[in-house]
Specification:
β4, α7 and β5 form a beta-alpha-beta unit. α10 packs parallel to α11. It is elongated, with a radius of gyration of 30 Å. It has two domains: 268 residues, Alpha-Beta Barrel (TIM Barrel), CATH 3.20.20; 71 residues, Type Iii Antifreeze Protein Isoform Hplc 12, CATH 3.90.1210.10. The longest helix has 18 residues. It is an alpha/beta fold.
Length: 353
């Protein structure tokens, strides 16, 4: 997507990423690929610009890293090492996923978790994504930046100092950068989203800003983010929320994803521009219903124009439209220079000078 960054700098555009995460995992290699195909097709039919997977292996955490409390509460009793091993993606899937995305006309993305992952993914993607917890992964920052491709940086659980460092590191290679406000909680409560950060980041960094949303509601946070200036929305989705895996339970189902995307597209259209003016769609009713100075009786030539007696401020409908009420004093108590039919508008050319 050569014009991706230019598109995001245009405030009228919006880039929506349907985050498949690890929700493609479904059993055997054949079942996994079939599930991924269904996710890609669904994301495309729902109107997403891109679908994003995650490419990693079990080496992300130290050995014996233990269990995650938030996953344990959801009934997932495996250690984080076991989870990452189970949901790791073989590099062999990457060209197959890219091919499927081309087939369904949707941008293919996958988040790397190591330099090795970056090197494997790079030949198949046009846009890279840096996960929130990788913002301090210096070797990977350099590896991503060296690709010279746009990088979307999630900023969940990050400080401004860490964001500054990541931007500075990436910019050494003249890369295009986008930032995503993100709350690294699964699911994230509405009060934790802090969406006011979006305009703050936009003003501070002069970069395209978006939202990686982990809240459950399909509309509230994404719609609010767009209203605050976001041009990228990333949201997890699944084919079945009850499926086995760490991401399904807080993901949108296909109906919710379609609803979200439709709402966001219409929201973006509705923002328009900051210049207050009469829209083309308003012109017909403005002419029909905007009050003007109209005759309320037949007016004779030479008759004095008096408000409430022979003229009034009325909506003209399909009748000849008169002068705007702002200019009432220009004709008040002046004499008409012609006969004026009841209902017709009064203009400056209808009065004696």
């Amino acid at each position: 997507m050569k014009n991706f960054y230019k598109k995001l700098q245009n405030s009228t555009d919006l880039f929506i990423i349907a985050e498949a995460g690890s929700n493609w995992k479904h059993g055997t290699e054949k079942q996994d690929l079939n599930q991924a195909k269904k996710l890609i097709k669904t994301a495309s039919l729902c109107g997403a610009d891109a679908i994003k997977f995650q490419t990693y292996d079990s080496s992300v955490y130290v050995e014996n890293a233990g269990k995650s409390n938030y996953l344990s509460k959801k009934g997932i009793k495996k250690s984080v090492n076991e989870i990452f091993n189970e949901f790791s993606m073989s590099y062999k899937m990457l060209p197959k996923l890219q091919k499927l995305c081309k087939q369904y006309d949707i941008e293919f993305m996958s988040t790397p978790f190591s330099v090795k992952d970056v090197n494997a993914i790079d030949k198949f993607v046009n846009i890279h994504k840096l996960a929130s917890y990788e913002i301090n992964h210096i070797p990977m920052l350099h590896a991503l930046a060296k690709t010279k491709k746009p990088i979307i940086v999630s900023t969940g659980a990050s400080t401004l100092e860490e964001i500054n460092f990541a931007i500075k590191t990436i910019k050494k290679y003249n890369n295009k950068i986008c930032l995503l406000q993100c709350t690294s909680k699964y699911p994230a409560k509405p009060e934790s989203l802090n969406l006011s950060v979006i305009p703050s980041l936009k003003n501070k960094y002069k970069l395209p800003i978006g939202l990686s949303d982990h809240s459950i509601d399909p509309i509230v946070a994404p719609l609010t983010a767009v209203g605050l200036g976001a041009t990228i929305i990333e949201k997890h989705f699944t084919l079945d929320k009850s499926s086995n895996g760490p991401d399904h339970y807080f993901s949108l189902n296909p109906t919710e994803l379609k609803l979200m995307i439709s709402a966001l597209r219409n929201s973006k259209k509705s923002i328009g521009n900051p210049i207050k003016k009469i829209h083309n769609d308003e012109k017909e009713l403005r002419k029909f219903a905007h009050r003007s100075i109209q005759a309320i009786k037949n007016i004779k030539n030479g008759e004095k124009l008096i408000l409430g007696k022979n003229i009034d401020l009325l909506r003209p409908g399909n009748r000849k439209r008169g002068l705007d009420p702002r200019f009432l004093n220009k004709i008040l108590h002046k004499k008409s220079n012609k006969k004026i039919n009841v209902g017709d508008g009064i203009s400056l050319k209808d009065i004696s000078s």
